[in-house]
């Protein structure tokens, strides 16, 4: 088989990725600890090798990526990660596992989900490499808690390897592995008139003060639960922080609707709320793993995805 001779280097690709992130030769030179002319020359050579212009150079305001540059950025990041994995594989021929994982998580899911999954995965790799211990397992995480659109953007531009999120507004370029269905439930102040009922109906809530979790996608999903009644609740209070929403409810400002299972009904200020299932048939959301269809996951990412599948299903089964 004939081997195509590469006309670019990993060094040039790294310069390209860093420069694309900061959009300045000067800032990239500082980050890479090399001279500005070295970066400028390397990127000019890379553009010649590829036969495309990657950057538009603005005299007064730095750089911007061309469409070709944007298209190539994700692939360049992926290639650099694969090169890193090859080097780690050579060091870990004893069967151990090392590498970095860029993990995204929907902002409302991150506090109760992401730390536990990361910790358990690192502990599982430490058991493969018992000499290293959990703190030095060889696995590094770079994390991002964000909204759905930002997670999908990160998956497609290569800055994220994998994301834990809901099956909301999925696009064709996102591969989604469903894990568990999470039905919504209502949280109420302890002294609320409905707090002693075993279940709560949507109709009972329509005229009650509503504390809305004010996040993209979540707003619409929770409001749409009421569409069968021909009316939607008007938020009396709102917050983009789930812990603040729970605090508002526990302090008597109204009810709210959530869907990720909680292990505690006490807020950070020491107040309590109650959790009630709905009497109505309500649509559940699906929690799962999102990855880009255009990026081949590295081995360490594949192992983490497989771990998440079993671990999240197991965590949910215990609720």
List keywords for this structure.
D-Maltodextrin-Binding Protein, domain 2; elongated; 5-stranded mixed sheet; single chain; 40% helix; 3-stranded antiparallel sheet; 3 domains; alpha/beta; 319 residues; Arc Repressor Mutant, subunit A
Task: Describe it.
This protein has 319 residues and is α/β, with parallel strands linked by helices. The protein has 10 helices and 12 strands. Helix 1 packs across helix 4. The relative contact order is 0.14.
Layout: helices, strands, pairs:
Blueprint: H1 10-22, H2 25-32, H3 36-50, E1 55-58, E2 62-65, H4 67-91, E3 99-106, H5 110-128, E4 139-146, H6 148-157, E5 162-166, E6 174-182, E7 185-189, H7 202-205, E8 210-213, H8 218-224, E9 235-239, H9 242-250, E10 256-258, E11 273-277, E12 285-292, H10 299-317
Parallel strand pairs: 3-4, 3-5, 8-9
Antiparallel strand pairs: 1-2, 5-12, 6-12, 7-10, 7-11
Helix pairs in contact: 1-2, 1-3, 1-4, 2-3, 5-10
**CATH architecture descriptor of the largest domain:** 3-Layer(aba) Sandwich
Reading side by side through the largest sheet, how are the strands ordered? Answer: 4-3-5-12-6
Mean pLDDT across all amino acids? 87
Give the SSE string: HHHEEHEHEHEEEHEHEHEEEH
Task: Tell me the CATH topology of the largest domain.
Answer: D-Maltodextrin-Binding Protein, domain 2
Largest sheet: 5 strands, mixed
The CATH homology group name of the largest domain: Periplasmic binding protein-like II
General form: elongated
């Amino acid at each position: 088989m004939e081997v195509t001779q590469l006309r670019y280097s990993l060094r040039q690709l790294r310069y390209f990725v860093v420069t694309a992130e900061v959009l300045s030769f000067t800032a990239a030179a500082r980050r890479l600890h090399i001279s500005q002319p070295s970066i400028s020359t390397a990127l000019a050579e890379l553009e010649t090798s590829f036969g495309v212009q990657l950057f538009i150079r603005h005299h007064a305001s730095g750089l911007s990526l061309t469409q070709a540059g944007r298209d190539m950025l994700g692939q360049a990041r992926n290639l650099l990660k694969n090169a890193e994995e090859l080097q780690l594989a050579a060091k870990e021929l004893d069967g151990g596992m090392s590498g970095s994982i860029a993990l995204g998580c929907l902002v409302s899911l991150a506090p109760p989900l992401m730390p536990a999954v990361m910790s358990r995965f690192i502990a599982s790799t430490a058991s493969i490499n018992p000499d290293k211990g959990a703190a030095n397992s060889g696995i590094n995480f770079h994390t991002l808690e964000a909204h759905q659109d930002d997670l999908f953007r990160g998956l497609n531009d290569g800055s994220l390897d994998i994301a834990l999120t809901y099956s909301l507004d999925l696009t064709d370029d996102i591969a989604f592995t469903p894990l568990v269905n999470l039905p919504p439930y209502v949280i109420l102040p302890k002294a609320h008139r409905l707090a002693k009922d075993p279940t709560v109906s949507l109709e009972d809530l329509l005229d009650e003060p509503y504390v809305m979790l004010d996040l993209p996608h979540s707003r619409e999903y929770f409001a749409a639960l009421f569409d069968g009644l021909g009316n939607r609740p008007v938020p009396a209070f709102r917050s983009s922080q789930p812990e603040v929403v729970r605090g508002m409810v526990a302090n008597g400002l109204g009810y709210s609707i959530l869907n990720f299972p909680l292990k505690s009904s006490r807020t950070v200020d020491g107040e309590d709320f109650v959790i009630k299932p709905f009497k109505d048939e309500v649509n559940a959301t699906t929690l799962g793993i999102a990855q880009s269809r255009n990026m081949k996951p590295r081995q360490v990412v594949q192992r983490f995805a497989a771990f998440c599948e079993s671990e999240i299903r197991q965590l949910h089964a215990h609720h």
